[in-house]
Design brief:
Layout (H helix, E strand, L loop, with lengths): L3 E2 L14 E5 L7 E11 L4 E2 L8 E3 L17 E5 L16 E10 L1 H4 L8 E3 L2
Antiparallel strand pairs: 1-7, 2-6, 2-8, 3-4, 3-5, 3-7
């Protein structure tokens, strides 16, 4: 399955001029038998975003390396898309328009039957 983020939670196209947060609440990580990933691409070329930290995706095998939100429980992972490198940073965001693809490899029934939906991508203030 490929949930696509082309717009934020307000319906506005994604732009590197803004910061965004994708928040996986406790118990709401993508339900998969294999693994999931999240990747960002610059538009209009649809190329990976070159960045100094050489991080081109966030995926489930990386969970032990990611910082949990201490205020919300063990399985709470906020992913940040911003200019500065941070702990759960996908990559320093594109300078202009971009799109993000989540990939669920061997998704569980919760995903295929619509009981789980990808969390909204919110513009950070």
């Amino acid at each position: 399955m490929y949930p696509v983020y082309g717009v934020d939670s307000d319906g506005k196209k994604l732009d590197g001029a803004n910061r965004y947060t994708l928040h996986f609440a406790p118990g709401q990580l993508p339900p998969v038998h294999a693994f999931w990933s999240l990747t960002m691409y610059e538009l209009p070329k649809s190329l990976l975003v070159a960045n100094p930290i050489n991080r081109y995706l966030i995926n489930s095998p990386m969970l032990p390396e990611l910082k949990k939100d201490a205020t919300a429980g063990d399985a709470d992972y906020p992913e940040r898309i911003s200019r500065q490198a941070q702990g759960n940073q996908l990559a320093p965001r594109a300078k202009g328009p971009f799109i993000m693809y989540m990939r669920l490899y061997w998704p569980k029934e919760e995903a295929t039957e619509g009981k789980w939906t990808a969390p909204p991508l919110k513009k950070a203030e």
